[in-house]
Amino acid sequence: MDDLKTDFYLSGYADGEGCFCVTFNKSNRHKFGWDIRPSFSVSQNKDRSQILGLYKERWNCGTIRPDRSDKTVKYEVRSIGDLVAKIIPHFENYPLLSEKQREFKIFKEICFLLLGKEHLTRNGFNQVRNLSEQMNASGKKRYPRNKIKI
Amino acid sequence: MDDLKTDFYLSGYADGEGCFCVTFNKSNRHKFGWDIRPSFSVSQNKDRSQILGLYKERWNCGTIRPDRSDKTVKYEVRSIGDLVAKIIPHFENYPLLSEKQREFKIFKEICFLLLGKEHLTRNGFNQVRNLSEQMNASGKKRYPRNKIKI
Questions:
Q1: Residue B57 sits at the chain A interface (C-beta within 8 Å)
Q2: What is the CA radius of gyration of chain A?
Q3: How many angstroms separate the CA atoms of A84 and A61, rounded?
Q4: What is this structure's pTM?
Q5: In Å, how far is A15's CA from the nearest CA of chain B?
Q6: What is the ipTM of this complex?
Q7: pLDDT of chain A along its 150 residues, tens only?
């Protein structure tokens, strides 16, 4: 399969199994007391995790490791540089076809705010928080965004 | 996105979310007392199930309906004619890249045995049963295949 075909394939796979995520963790070392981390990940059962290697190989970034929470293996990209330089352009070129595309667009907006260090201003921080509130609505958030006040 | 790209995308999505399945149900109306049904299905949460419409549209077969067991929606192809004429050729042309490809190959073999009515002979039936035993090893089977004796 040539690269172009692999790219469409990887988008299709990610549409089902991928996750754009922005977590907030309490931290004294970060401005306003919160460490904001964006990530893209794809999880898979251990017995058929070879597909995760395709992502790593194709994008030349990210890590593959067992997920502590269950019997899955996770491919994850957490570097903001890699997210903006590699992951976001991929999904711009080979777009998701489901409602997850909406998540991607918010994720992209957040990544650019973080890259531009906008979250170090009160306005920018609140913008990131409000945007992240619109993501993964059905997923459980450790810190509900409306409880994060600065 | 043109059709070719959609096809690779749909394979990628199916590699994560799709299922090749062969169920055995007790039946007095079927030879040897068992009704054997192959199916291909893709499930998705209700709130982002629009991708299932892509399969139906692209393959012009199958049904989309709520899954009684949970809050998902399922696209399913059960007709042996559609499976052999449409689904199997699709995955021949746009192959799965994970271990699920192994499942597909067994599934294909079973579908051709069923289409050729080989399961109506004792040998053919046992062949289908043995092949199906090698599928979805981690999934729960209502009737463990080694308990099905004819």
A1: no
A2: 16
A3: 12
A4: 0.84
A5: 6
A6: 0.76
A7: 577 778 999 999 999 899 999 999 999 999 999 999 999 999 988 777 788 999 999 999 999 999 877 788 999 999 999 999 999 999 999 999 988 999 999 999 999 999 999 999 999 999 999 999 999 766 667 788 878 888
